[in-house]
Amino acid sequence: MASRCCSCKVDVLQKNSLRPVLSIVIPVFNEEQRIGSTLDTITDYLRRQPYSYELLLVDDGSIDQTPKVCRDFVESHEWAALLTHSENHGKGCAVRTGVLNAQGEYILVCDADLATPIEELDNFWRLIEEGADIVIASRPLPESCLVQRQPWYREFAGRAFNIVVRLIAVPGIHDTQCGFKLFRRACAQAIFSQCTLNGFAFDIEVLYLARKLGLQIKEAPVRWFHKQGSKVRVLKDGLSMLLDLGKILIRHHHVRQSEKS
């Protein structure tokens, strides 16, 4: 599997060369406290599925024991792979590395904390069968169940930010930032090969490009649990993401639907 991530040095440990039905991409950065539990949960889920699969863990320059936990897991699971950035570049870069190296016909990007339980994927397949190119978890939908909510200030900031995002970049999409998104392989390749942002605004860039390419995005209701330990700093990262909105509009204004692959 060739390693690709815009100027990032990536070391790859992988063993499974067969193309699976599903690839799961999980970016990790200093997740030693919870990645083991997440991997156990995903393993249990995948073993109950009728299709083939692979798991790609992308370590974005962790300085704790995350790389060791991931490496130990990969060495005992033939369907798992570890991709390692030698330095921290940002979640967007880590996700891009994973997606561009994924072999599955469908690619699920999910967060290391499993705030959206992996079982929610079961409800995404119907939307794919109905023609969706991308299915994204959406917390504001009436059918969604926020089992454990964020602190009020995070929830308020998120809603305010999403209003700006809908006005400027992706009108009609209620939740760009939930870390649980399923892509058809060809669509993911077309999008992520053009992505440039390394920070948390990468989700917006992905959906903006998808719209420009004429891809069909469907939002799906999910169960969601707030988990402690978020890497997003409300003020600092919020301001950075607002600035990145401008970069998205400038860098991708030329993209046309004919570029869809």
Explain what this protein looks like in three dimensions.
This protein is an alpha/beta fold and 261 residues long. The protein has a single domain (10-259), classed as Spore Coat Polysaccharide Biosynthesis Protein SpsA, Chain A. Helices cover 36% and strands 20% of the residues. It is built from eight helices and ten strands. The strands form two sheets. An eight-stranded mixed sheet has the order 1-4-3-2-5-8-6-9, sandwiched between helices. α5 (152-168) runs parallel beside α8. The protein is globular, with a radius of gyration of 17 Å. Residues 1-7 have low confidence and may be disordered.
What is the CATH fold-level name? Spore Coat Polysaccharide Biosynthesis Protein SpsA, Chain A
Helix content: 25-40%
Give the overall shape: globular
Tally of contiguous helical segments: 8
Report Rg: 17 Å
Give the low-confidence spans: 1-7
- CATH class, named Alpha Beta
CATH superfamily: Spore Coat Polysaccharide Biosynthesis Protein SpsA, Chain A
Binned strand content: 15-25%
Distance between the termini: 20 Å
Largest β-sheet summary: 8 strands, mixed
User: How many beta strands in the DSSP annotation?
Assistant: 10
Q: What is the topology, as strand order, of the major beta sheet?
A: 1-4-3-2-5-8-6-9
What is the second-level CATH architecture? Alpha-Beta Complex
Summarize the structure.
The protein has 261 residues and is an alpha/beta fold. Helix content is 36%, strand content 20%.
Keywords for this entry:
single chain, 261 residues, alpha/beta, 8-stranded mixed beta sheet
